[in-house]
Write the structure tokens for this entry.
Amino acid sequence: MSSTKSGTQQNSAEEKKIDLYSYEYQSDPAPYLRKLREEDPVHWSSHGFWFLTRYDDVQMVLRDAARFSSAGASWGTSNPVAKDATSAEKQGGDVGKIGNLLRHSFNLSDPPVHTRLRGLVNQAFSRRAAQHKRERIEEVVHGLVAAAHAKGRFDLVKDLGFPLPIIVASEIIGIPTADADRFRRSFEEAGVLMMPIKNQAVLDRGIAAARWQGQYLKDLVEARRAAPADDLISHLIDAEEEGEKLTAPEMMAAIATIFTAAGTTTERLISSGLYLLLSHPDQLAALRADRSLMAGALDELLRFHHPDQSTSTNRRATCDVALRGKQIKAGDSVRVSLGAANRDPERFRDPDRFDIRRTDNKHLSFGNGIHFCLGSALSLSETEIMFNAVFDAMPNLKLITTQPVKDPKRPDRYLEIQVSC
């Protein structure tokens, strides 16, 4: 019996109602994740993938690269782009080209390919990130905070969370300032390709954005080959000249992956983090009074509200795996929910309570194992600098938007979070 049929039969009528791509789920995933974690922790989604929500299971999959491969990991059966990467080249046209590019990301590879790609990228990224001194991040932060403070009323996402990591990531990578916003928008527009496609017009817009992004990166890499600069792209090219070599698709996929890791995750950590602190005045007051609590506060923010709370990490089963009474078949798509794992009561005491003094807080928000987030240190540094600057400059910061609403078109984003200072 196929995994799809067996998975469907194993779901109850109530479980079938949980649509992991619905607006209701993505705008408030916590109750849905709790239900799945308690009642169906190895869940077969109608979109064609297994969805895991228990901490031990999620950590096991992230660590077990032999049985749960990143190479060829897909988003299930609902999307024409995110199919098994090994067949991407056979699809033809723009869809096949985009799928083919996706599979060259070091995040979608296994050793020894992953070891080679990650080593090259880590060397270049670490070198460039270290050179991008803390003073420059502080300069950008203080400029943003001063501009927001001058308004008297501003938006946590648009005025603070969004611009900082985009500016920093663009400068590290080597994307000209004039192109940074357009490059970021291309990620947003192409993001629909990772979701079930509702109509041809949506697919066409996503493909157009991905095509623009691919051509832009190709041109930028060629420009750096002709005229190197002090940026990550040039450092990657330098690494090639030292003996290792990235193919053109590997280079473009690496740049896109780093931009996502260093940009969008931090954007959400800053905006959602400030919102959570403002929503918990006692926790905010404690952190303002004692900045030594900052590291623990950042860990708790990451645990309590993973920056991509409604999303999950993809893997592909390389063999049959029996898990909690379910049979995952070789070749099945498996997705693990970091947000659900971070609130597993079997791992965290009183997991739905936000507590910046929480100890033993080994959350999975940056992943685990060989694919641990490359940009984690940079993300934490930027967030810490931003929080300290906001606390110092705005002692009377208050929420105006007490119940943020997610964007119906992009439910991973808030429409606005207005505050006054």
About this structure: The longest strand covers residues 313-317. DSSP finds 19 helices and ten strands in the chain. The chain has a mean pLDDT of 83. The two ends are 61 Å apart (CA to CA).
